[in-house]
Design brief:
With about 350 residues, this protein is an alpha/beta fold. The chain is about 30% helix and about 30% strand. It is built from 8 helices and 21 strands. It has helices at about 10-25, 40-45, 60-80, 100-120, 145-155, 170-180, 195-210, 220-235, and strands spanning about 1-5, 25-30, 50, 85-90, 125-130, 130, 165-170, 185-190, 195, 240-245, 245-250, 250-255, 265-270, 275-280, 290-295, 295-305, 310-315, 320-325, 330-335, 340-345, 360. The strands form 5 sheets. It has a 6-stranded parallel sheet with strand order 2-1-3-4-5-8, sandwiched between helices. Strands 10-18-15-20-13 form a 5-stranded antiparallel sheet, with no helix packed on it. Helix 3 (about 60-80) links the parallel strand 3 (about 50) and strand 4. The chain is globular and about 80 Å long.
Length: about 350
């Protein structure tokens, strides 16, 4: 499918584009402020549109009317399109709650639904709870991003505890992609995980206390894994490498490379000849650890769909942890003149039917 995504460089837009890159053959046309004036042209030849563009913060009138204004622009483009593109809208449980944001989101939903009906297009109104995940902006995207930032930086966090439903952003992206199937007019409410605001902060604090030493915290649920990946994203790249302690006596040396607190996992070793590169892929959910135990290497990572590259030079004489953040392509290259030996660890057993490994040149 040819899919236009508005707000393509925002939190939801970026995650959805990465998931599409990993799991679909869709042609994605990103739309943001820079090319919004071409919206009509781009929508005109699209099979579907996912509308993420919106205003979350600002003066009340700007937030309310801005979301409606963006929807009207898209509705006009849909009306003038050559076909009847499927329309998928990123709505919120706050729609219609009387706040400027909730009012604006509800108005936008009505505008887009009416435009879809008039055109004969399928319409999916995806109602999102609190969405969180890797690379969310503190004090903007969610309280989860704010808590992760505060835990990592050592800042205090004020908590007004309440029950909350959380949805990981990759689960949200999955819902948007599935909603492209073009089935009628409908409201979609993706299943969320119920927890508490204070509980999220407690999980982050406990995970950070263990992980800052290089240990892997207990990951008893999918929520814990998703929060841990969110925390690791907030720590990357400033907190790496994590140095390991080498214990040496007359017999030789010992280094503890993985200490997992109650987590499932799999460990494997590889040898790599000089000048050879391994990797060139990314993961959507997997926690993966690299530790060079012999030889020299450069570990390079690139945030998917961006030019942002981070590189670490590592040496087996001073073993250190580099954990791969999700949604970053990564590779390891033997930069020495001898064979490279690397230990890898992942938090899940290898499943050939679901490898969570997607090709990506770094």
């Amino acid at each position: 499918m040819r899919v236009v995504i508005t707000g393509a460089h925002g939190f939801l837009g970026w995650h959805t584009r990465v998931r599409m890159r990993a799991l679909t053959d869709h042609e994605v046309i990103p739309v943001d402020v820079a090319n919004w004036d071409r919206l009509g042209e781009l929508v005109g030849t699209a099979d579907a549109v996912i509308h993420f563009a919106g205003i979350n913060r600002g003066p009340d009138r700007e937030v309310e009317q801005g979301n409606a204004h963006l929807a009207r622009g898209l509705a006009d483009a849909i009306g003038r399109s050559n076909g009847a593109p499927s329309v998928v809208y990123a709505n919120t449980i706050q729609a219609g709650n009387g706040t400027p944001y909730g009012t604006g989101k509800a108005m936008a939903s009505t505008i887009l639904r009416e435009a879809a009906i008039a055109k004969g297009s399928p319409y999916a109104d995806v109602v999102l709870p609190n969405v969180f995940g890797e690379h969310g902006r503190p004090d903007y995207n969610s309280f989860v991003a704010t808590f992760a930032h505060k835990v990592v930086t050592g800042a205090s966090a004020q908590v007004q505890d309440r029950a909350v439903d959380l949805l990981h952003v990759q689960d949200a992206a999955k819902t948007f992609i599935e909603a492209l199937d073009g089935i009628g007019q409908r409201v979609v409410e993706p299943p969320a995980t119920s927890t508490g605001v204070a509980a999220v902060l407690e999980i982050f604090a406990a995970q950070y206390e263990v992980y800052r030493r290089g240990d892997i915290p207990a990951l008893p649920s999918r929520l814990h894994v998703n929060l841990f990946n969110t925390l690791r994203a907030a720590m990357f790249p400033a907190s790496y490498p994590i140095p390991l302690v080498r214990r040496t006596d007359l017999r030789g040396s010992l280094v503890e490379t993985v200490r997992a607190h109650g987590s499932e996992g799999q460990t494997f070793l590889s040898t790599t000849k000089p000048g050879i590169t391994r990797g060139q892929h990314f993961h959507l959910r997997k926690v993966e650890r690299f530790v060079v135990v012999s030889g020299k290497a450069r570990i390079s990572l690139r945030k998917v769909l961006t030019d942002e590259v981070v590189a670490f030079d590592v040496d087996g004489t001073a073993p250190a942890i580099i954990d791969m953040p999700t949604l970053w392509g990564h590779k390891i290259t033997n930069t020495g003149d001898s064979e490279l030996t690397t230990m890898f660890w992942t938090n899940e057993l290898f499943d050939p039917q679901d490898t969570d490994t997607y090709p990506e040149e770094v």
